[in-house]
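Figure 3 (text version): structure tokens given as input.
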């Protein structure tokens, strides 16, 4: 890996992917996103991994897409490159992904964070979709996920003006889960991830799938989907262990089976 660092066991059952193009402020070029895609595939297939953290480090998450790669491209070039196909793996990943965001998360960086399942931000974090300022618009889900997260009028303001929002604003708007000090970003994110990693991997995957399905279905369709996944948990050893532990007043030992 040239532009990312991967630690498959930074803590028990928790993996870490760190974007690593420091001179370019982690600008998202095609090679970096290919590496993220490949890392996610491997970690999703690793039975020892239950939660994945994606970060850019303490100073910056990702300042946007790599404009130099796109500046002279034609519409046909962009269509043929299909650069966003690598992003589809993030959506396909069954295990929960937590974005740990410090510093700028702009353009593609903001979109990358929103593609994750949860976002922990530091008090230095700034979120924005400033593509309008260079004559284009978000193309990796910025107009869609941002609108679903914070509502139409706020999304319109950010997308049409390129305005950044601070971590407290992002928390108020419902874009992020919590704010932590920059120096404690990884520690606090690991602690947050550990709460999920100790639970049944089977139930976590099915629950994540059900929540995501809510954005692509009617309420009635979503309820049917949820019910099927709920029934499916009863085919797992984890469900038997979890309920037995509850009755016996002890901590469960989930195996992911």
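Below: residues designed for each position.
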């Amino acid at each position: 890996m040239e532009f990312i660092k991967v630690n498959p066991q930074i803590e028990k059952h928790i993996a870490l992917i760190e974007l690593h193009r420091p001179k370019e402020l982690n600008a998202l070029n095609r090679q970096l996103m290919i590496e993220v895609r490949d890392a996610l595939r491997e970690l999703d297939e690793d039975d020892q991994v239950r939660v994945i953290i994606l970060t850019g480090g303490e100073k910056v998450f990702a300042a946007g897409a790599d404009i130099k790669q796109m500046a002279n491209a034609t519409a046909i070039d962009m269509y043929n490159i299909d650069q966003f196909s690598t992003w589809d793996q993030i959506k396909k990943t069954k295990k929960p992904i937590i974005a740990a965001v410090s510093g700028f998360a702009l353009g593609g960086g903001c979109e990358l964070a929103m593609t994750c399942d949860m976002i922990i931000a530091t008090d230095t974090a700034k979120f924005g979709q400033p593509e309008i300022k260079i004559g284009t618009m978000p193309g990796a889900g910025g107009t869609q996920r941002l609108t679903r997260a914070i509502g139409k009028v706020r999304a319109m303001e950010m997308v049409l003006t390129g305005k950044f929002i601070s971590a407290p604003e992002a928390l108020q708007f419902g874009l992020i889960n919590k704010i932590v000090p920059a120096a404690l970003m990884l520690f606090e994110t690991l602690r947050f991830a550990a709460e999920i990693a100790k639970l049944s991997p089977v139930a976590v995957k099915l629950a994540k799938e059900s929540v995501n399905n809510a954005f692509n279905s009617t309420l009635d369709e979503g309820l049917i989907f949820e019910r099927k996944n709920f029934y499916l948990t009863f085919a797992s050893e984890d469900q038997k262990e979890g309920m037995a532990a509850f009755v016996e007043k002890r901590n469960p030992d989930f195996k992911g089976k």
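The domain at 201-248 is CATH 1.10.12.10 (Lyase 2-enoyl-coa Hydratase; Chain  A, domain 2).
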